[in-house]
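Figure caption, in words: inputs first, then the predicted bound structure.
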Amino acid sequence: MPSLKANLLVVDDEAPVRMCLLGILVESGYAVRTASDGFSALAAIRQRIPDLILSDLNMPGMSGFELLSVVRRRFPSIRVVAMSSGFRGLDLPRGVAADAFYEKATHPSSLLRMLEDISRPGQSPLLHRPRSSAPIWIPTNGHNARGDSFITISCPECLRAFPQLLDQSAPTTLETTCAWCHSPINYAIVQSALAA
Ligand SMILES: [Zn+2]
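Bound structure (zinc ion present):
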């Protein structure tokens, strides 16, 4: 049993897997939230930063591979367990930014031990990096089929890009929301490109 009720986020696209893990983990004393894909996981993380994340690797939309690399970069204090049925044994698949690996549907006891090991106090000093308030600078892309100016914004949170129409009368520094993960983004237009 974990001595402190660690806050845990379970990410899996299959509802029966989420429910099953939720049951096991709540019974073991964890405070558990669930998310069905990488984007909703990032939204849940922004609401409240969890101590631990248990994430599937193969999910539609944003895979666990992408999610965990974003988490490692943006929230280095969160301890992470990757899980999959596509890999055997206890070894972490190459390229996965996680602290441990759980082979799905094998011994829940080994999962619980793993979570306890990586969440020991002292193991994870909760150093939450403050959000950068500096805007990202974006050049214009030209015009779309209807002749409207637009820019392509790359979300610093989930790293996906999306187009945004340009309002020529708007102030220099603007705010928008990521089309994918709904993070607030500060951005500014590169002036030289506007004149061109
Ligand atoms: Zn985003």
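The first strand starts at residue 7 and ends at 11.
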